[in-house]
Amino acid sequence: MLQSIWDDVRREFSFGNMINRIIIVNVAVFLFVSIVWMIFTVAAGHTQSPAFDSLMHWFYASSDWKRVLLRPWTMITYMFLHQGFFHLLWNMLYLFWFGRIFGDLLGDRRVLPLYLLGGFAGFLFYFIAFNVGSFGAGGSYLLGASGAVYCILTATAIFAPDYNIRLFIIGNVRLKYIVFFAIMMQLIGLGSLDNIGGTFAHIGGIIMGILFAFYLRRGTDLTEPVQNLLAWIQKKWANLLAPSKEHKQPGPRAAYRSGRSVKETAGPKKRPSFMRKAGETAPRAKPASNTSARSQMTHQEELDAILDKIKERGYNSLTKEEKDFLFRASNQK
Questions:
Q1: What pairs with residue 278 in β-bridges?
Q2: Helices and strands of the chain, counted as H and E runs
């Protein structure tokens, strides 16, 4: 069972859209942190573990400028951490519902860059508000993907305001009304100190979503520098994992005769006629395998063949390679 789950997650992360990948990362981080919390809590005698809190402060965003300077990575890591199951659940549901609309409208390549920009804007707004205003001494900590999610939500509503969302009991509601209600709730939330840091982060994400839509309509894509940075990091990572030229080992060599290998010139072995059984005929050439035949088919022909096979014998009759091909084809734009 675990192997099957791991295969599904790996396939979705490899071939799924960026929204699904972000959700997988957030859920994986939440599960890992929960297991670490359980270990520290049991070791502390089922009480709150100061060691666990000290460890997580290395990944939470802080309003203390000294901690930000010493731990600059927290401006990124905080947006992949959640406190409690429902904190994670609602953020991921909002991201799934509205992020897929954003990806279909504006392209999958902009999803992760805008997620990071929205999260950074949320941190920046929270940091400035806590250092300018008086919201408590000693600093505070911020975690959660809410700022990034509100950024994507706002940008989606600006580009597709009349998109219908079906809500439970209420029915179809246009996206612009959902986002307007969400923004008003955040503005009203400024009057309460309950989760005031999260409210500032949400407003920062909303502002970034508005700025992104404003500039994109005028021909400037704010996510382009982030896209270039992510492409550069991916290239460097691929080069780091690639084996160096000095460590490449030569493969097995073949002897050649008249421009062809010995194996090619030898040809297939045949049984002498006197060794055949009575009535036995000479062996016939084997038909080309499905793999070689499939390699000569076009992408559309192979897709049609797989769909015909499903129609005749059902989905379960497909091989693993055919299922992977169908999954990749369904995610192509």
A1: none
A2: 15, 6
Tell me the angle at which helices 196-216 and 175-189 cross, rounded to the nearest 10 degrees: 140
Which residues are 141's β-sheet partners? 62
Q: How does pLDDT run across 97-140, given as a tens digit for each residue?
A: 889 999 998 989 999 999 999 999 999 999 998 888 766 555 68
d(CA 282, CA 140): 84
Domain at 2-218, CATH class:
mainly alpha
Q: What angle do CA 175, 160, 19 make, to 5 degrees?
A: 85
User: How far, in Å, CA of 294 to CA of 233, rounded?
Assistant: 35
Find residue 171's DSSP bridge partners: 167
Residue 318 in this model has a pLDDT that exceeds 50: yes
pTM (two decimals): 0.71
Q: What is the DSSP string of 191-204?
A: T--TTHHHHHHHHH
φ and ψ at residue 241, rounded to 5 degrees: -80, -20
H-state helical runs in 217-319: 224-241, 262-266, 290-295, 299-313
Straight-line distance from the first to the last Cα atom of the chain, in angstroms, rounded to the nearest whole number: 32
